[in-house]
Design brief:
The protein folds into two domains: 130 residues, no CATH class; 323 residues, 7 Propeller (Methylamine Dehydrogenase, Chain H), CATH 2.130.10. Helix content is 5%, strand content 49%. It contains one helix and 41 strands. The protein has a four-stranded antiparallel beta sheet with strand order 6-35-33-32, with no helix packed on it. A four-stranded antiparallel beta sheet has the order 8-9-10-11, with no helix packed on it. Strand 20 and strand 21 form a beta hairpin. It starts with a strand and ends with a strand.
């Protein structure tokens, strides 16, 4: 039978228990080992066996998972070492992502391009428009409203009762213009567009600070060259936004953030431009960051960074050449204080003490979501990862991660690792779990006054094969 044991010792992390009674009675054809992986089993002469092996290639599935998770453990170690200044001896607290809930009621499906959370609602934009979910129960978000947009929505900002949407199709030879629109979401069940303004080109990103909206735009043909832009709009009256300035960039401006009197812009050519917007009608460039890529000598150089987010006096700039942390104590002279190993970044979000980034691993044929502890910005330490991830914008609120997908997907950030699957084949028991540094696999033969013993060679692993002994066996992941 399968049972979940209560964690009576706060220092121990019990995640899944397996009992193998010595009997020839058949177990139910299917049971759920975890919420992700339904498996079919039965007992044959006291041994756990997969059911319907011809129709359900269990061995191939387990072998595939073993390869992925074994590779992930190696990637994890390489990434920790890959940050300059990283102290691999430091005591770190690993974190894990666990699926919390998937939205219901959405008429669309597929990837999203932006998400913002406000109060009891999450606002997801996608190429077709805006979807609004009630998240009073994060385990089951419910779509309550939405609206279509005239062109694809690429980003969303939420301020008060208004959602600001950056719009525009992928650039074509016709030089299609973009736009941004303002939607009154005071009644989430009935969002109403209150303003629509054309932009010079496709609007990629948008931030609102004070009375102004800052829109990062891709390139447009001016008749003599291709030029991107940061446009600034006065939105003190949301129903009547007014363009007050435009600052041309050398490339496609992909991302913008605003802090104090400065706008930080990833413009597709330089990794970061710093604009003084004290006078929003007359933005002026005061600083530029161009990375020293000499440390990437053994990696193919990628395009300039296309994600920027500021937190306090630091900017997190990411893209084709990895993640750089910049000290903005003097905004006119951003100084890099740490970086990773030049691996391209496909999404970035910084919240609280963590930076979340997505990287591609060709030898695993998967994207990885990696979580770094940024408590010390000069010493980023990777503390968690999740395989089979798709790059997507996200917002983190407390310990919940809201991912821009349709339907909306919510993950929980936890310090409790889980066992993904248990299977039996040819007299061996295979257990697969999340990579959990500092944890080991433990087993006992009884939950009545249990005596837990460490399974040899289980530290710093993601799977193990054991002889499938008769009788009861209970397993958990725990700190020794």
């Amino acid at each position: 039978m399968i049972a979940t044991a209560t964690d009576s010792e706060l220092s121990k992390r019990i995640t899944l228990v397996l009992s193998l009674p010595k009997t020839d009675r058949a177990l139910p054809n299917h049971f759920q080992i975890s919420r992700y992986l339904p498996l079919g089993f039965g007992l044959e002469h006291g041994e756990l066996k997969p059911k319907d092996r011809e129709s359900w290639p269990q061995r191939q599935l387990v072998n595939s998972m073993k390869q992925i998770y074994n590779g992930v453990s190696l990637v994890f170690l390489l990434l920790v070492i890959g940050f300059t200044h990283s102290d691999t001896q430091a005591q770190i607290q690993p974190v894990f992502l666990r699926l919390k809930g998937v939205g219901i009621g959405s008429p669309v499906s597929g990837g999203g391009t932006g998400v913002k959370v406000g109060g009891d609602f999450a606002y997801v934009v996608h190429p077709g428009g805006l979807e609004i979910y009630s998240i009073t129960n994060p385990s089951a978000p419910v779509r309550v409203g939405g609206r279509e947009t005239q062109s694809p929505a690429n980003a969303v900002e939420l301020v008060g009762r208004y959602a600001y949407l950056a719009l525009g199709a992928t650039q074509t030879l016709t030089n299609d213009a973009g736009a941004f629109e303002i939607v009154d979401v005071g009644d989430p069940f009935n969002p109403v567009r209150v303003a629509y303004t054309n932009t010079l080109a496709r609007a990629n990103d948008i931030r609102v600070a004070g009375d102004y909206a800052y829109v990062a735009e891709c390139t447009r043909w001016t008749g003599s060259n291709l030029t991107g832009a940061l446009e600034i709009f006065d939105v003190s009256t949301p129903t009547n936004p007014l363009r007050v300035a435009s600052f041309d960039t050398l490339g496609c401006a992909a991302s913008v953030d605003v802090s104090a009197n400065y706008a930080y812009l990833a413009d597709g050519v330089t990794d970061l431009q710093v604009l003084d917007v004290t006078d929003a009608a007359h933005p002026r460039r005061v600083g530029v960051y161009q990375p020293d890529l000499s440390h990437c000598a053994f990696e193919p150089l990628g395009p300039p960074n296309n994600y920027v987010q500021t937190v306090g006096q630091f900017a997190y700039s990411a893209g084709g050449n990895g993640l750089n942390v910049l000290d903005l104590n003097d905004p006119s002279q951003p100084v890099r204080i740490s970086h990773n190993s030049c691996v391209p970044i496909y999404s970035l979000h910084v919240a609280g003490q963590y930076a979340f980034r997505t990287e591609w691993r060709s030898f695993l044929n998967t994207f990885l979501l990696l979580v770094a502890d940024i408590t010390n910005p000069t010493n980023l330490v990777t503390v968690g990862l999740k395989a089979d991830w798709q790059p997507a914008p996200m917002q983190v609120v407390s310990n919940l991660i809201y991912v821009a997908r349709n339907p909306l997907t919510v993950y929980e950030l936890t310090d409790r690792p889980i066992i993904h699957s248990i299977s039996s084949q040819d007299g061996n028991l295979t257990l697969v779990w999340e990579y959990a540094p500092g944890f080991v696999l433990e087993r006992t033969t009884s939950l009545t006054n249990p005596v837990w013993s460490v399974v040899p060679d289980s530290a710093n692993q993601t799977f193990i094969e054991l002889p499938a002994a008769a009788g009861a066996g209970f397993f958990r992941l725990a700190r020794p």
